Amino acid sequence: MSSSPMECAAKVTPRPLANSIRGLSDRGIAWLFVAPTIFLLLAINIFPLIWTIYLSFTNFRANRIGREVKFIGLRNYERILSDPDIWQTMQATAHFLLWTLFFQVLIGFTLAWLINRKFKGNDMWTTIIVLPMMLSPAVVGNFWKFLYHPQTGLFNYVVQFFTGVDSSSFSMIGDVSLAPWAIVIVDTWMWTPFVMLICLAGLRSIPDYLYEAASVDRASKWRQFWTITIPMVLPFLMLAVLFRGIENFKMFDLVVQLTGGGPGSITELTSINLKREAFEKWRTGYASAYAVILFVTVFGLASIYVKALNKVKER
């Protein structure tokens, strides 16, 4: 049976694209499919970063587009680093960051240790504990703002029941000394389950034979806890601290809904202050320098922390 001219041409004519793809290795084919996505992500992330760095050296204002943009060098950075209001927001952020990490790690690990003991209703209690982290931060902020209300809030009635203090005589989010602790309580309530889940994964990854060998050697439960449990869970704890530290450093929506940065500016975190500089005062160049400083700070601290985490994993 004779072949048609089209079939003969198909047999004789090479297919450059098909042949070139057929000649690629598995790694080359993988890069062929992944490369466009990588280039797109780099363009989305790298371009705004470069543009922000450029604007940080100018007096650009987004509400005055069309006016001459002047290059002012490091003046924005000098003004930021010498501004006492900026350092106050840094102090508020550090207070929020350190105390939330402390309570979330302490309570999260304790809950994980208790749930890992596998008692009746274990799954039900795990689900209940995890519920807060499934909510939107904006919803949580509004919810707790209602709970903190001095006249109708449930929180104040609980405080009155245990302390005998009149519930209408103080407000957690209206008092200068109590407002920072109010946002610490809310963030701890919401994100402790996240730390608990990571710690629970660490606890359940510990082989049973380690405890069995320690029991044969007549090691006490307390000694097993400090020589087996803590060292094995420590990398997971440090990973949880890294995730929550980065997230809390840029915390915005929860605090805005809960206190709005007040009373005064006592709970005005760096993210809130940055938003006001950029979109309320429209000092875009100044805000860009502010953003660059925060980025370098977070990136530097995270890099140092990751190196410490790797050293712990190598032990």
Structure description:
The protein has 315 residues and is an all-alpha fold. It has 14 helices and no strands. The protein has helices spanning 5-12, 16-22, 26-55, 75-81, 84-115, 122-130, 137-147, 154-163, 179-204, 208-216, 221-249, 253-258, 270-279, 284-314. The longest helix has 32 residues, at 84-115.
Give the overall silhouette. Answer: globular
Domains (count): 2
Arithmetic mean pLDDT: 86
CATH topology of the largest domain: MetI-like fold
The CATH superfamily of the largest domain is MetI-like
**SSE series:** HHHHHHHHHHHHHH
- Helices, by number, come to 14
> Given this structure, which CATH class of the largest domain is correct?
Mainly Alpha
Helix-residue proportion = over 70%
Strand content bin: under 5%
Low-confidence stretches: none
Largest sheet, in brief, is:
none
Number of strands: 0
CATH architecture of the largest domain: Orthogonal Bundle
Radius of gyration: 28 Å
* Backbone structural class: mainly alpha
Report the span from N to C terminus: 73 Å
Task: Give the arrangement of secondary structure elements.
Layout (H helix, E strand, L loop, with lengths): L4 H8 L3 H7 L3 H30 L19 H7 L2 H32 L6 H9 L6 H11 L6 H10 L15 H26 L3 H9 L4 H29 L3 H6 L11 H10 L4 H31 L1
Helix pairs in contact: 3-14, 4-14, 5-9, 5-11, 9-11, 11-14, 13-14
